[in-house]
Hints:
Structural class: alpha/beta
Shape: globular
CATH topology: Spore Coat Polysaccharide Biosynthesis Protein SpsA, Chain A
Number of domains: 1
CATH architecture: Alpha-Beta Complex
Amino acid sequence: MPDFFQHNLITTIHDLRTSELDQLEEMMRSATRHSNVGLVLPVTASDMRAEPFDRIVQELSAADYVDTIVVSLGVAPDESDYQETLQKVAPLGDRCKVLWTDGPKVQALYQELIDAGLPLSTPGKGRSVWTAFGYLLADPRIDVFVLHDCDIVDYDRTLLSRLCLPMVDPALDFEFCKAYYARVTDRMHGRVVRLLVAPLLRALVQLYPTNRFLEYLANFRYPLAGEFSLTRNLARSNRIPSDWGLEVGTLAEVFRNTSLKRVCQVDLCRLYEHKHQSASLENKQAGLMKMAIDILTTVYRTLASQGIVLTSDAFITLRSLFLRSAQDCIRQYAADARVNNVAYNRHDEEIMIDAFASCITTSAELYQLDPNGAEAIPNWTRVRSAFPDFTDRLRDAV
């Protein structure tokens, strides 16, 4: 997105179309002489067998500035899934390790923590990422932790270098870098961000105009992006949600644990395409509806942890404000689509915002029944204080 607009709380690093891949990678090679990068790739067995994963492996084989790659394999109950993953990543050499979260050795380590009272029983992307961070923390050479998804259809190394460079360049001083991008093909995608998160934040800022956390969230162009990089210190001190609240929960932990002047967002690529979740309008336990409810309850609980009292009346007002903000967004998206000659169906968009509005009510009911919700996975500082050799044993298991 070639512009240079800066928000007031966090730094935005734009793609001004002035850097080529070879230039970026030469900068990376120079910077990583003194700052080692560990890359985490959370992947399920089905995504591992899909075409995008093969492309990612092929691209990463030339990314010689990445010291260690951890493929965190989940939703893979059979050893054949693990063996096939090993074969797939073989071109990456010894620097790549497959962390099989469903394997008996890692499961035994999870059970040890569960028996000690730590909430590790919920599988998912959050636990996979957390486990990979623990693996990397056992290596004192790794300074920067980087994460990106494995279903990116149009992946190339430009994405990786732009995500890493703000964290490793010695001329910069960031502790956390979040990705943003345009999800467009022949139509606009990213419905949860466009039609839920963006108007929700506008509504919440109207409801709580002095809340700095909401202002901070509103500064991110794509708060649900699965790609981010962070320092070793934040990887150790951040807690991680285990559900679809992972991205928002991570932003909340960053807000809590570092200065905002050390937070940035970076434009990764002109367009970004990955698999699309089904809307699942009739089933709030699946698809975008499940995602929306998890995100909303994470936001509510985070606001409550900052001392905001969320009453039934507040939720009624929030739903009304959301609908008005979402309708304004649809008008804006329609104009954007028209001028850029991409397909846009206003009726379908209206249906989605009505469905998301119902999620606001459903998630409010869930929050009021259980204000605390499921505990986030504890940070690695706590785990290592209780089990000093745990990360070393995790590395041995892998």
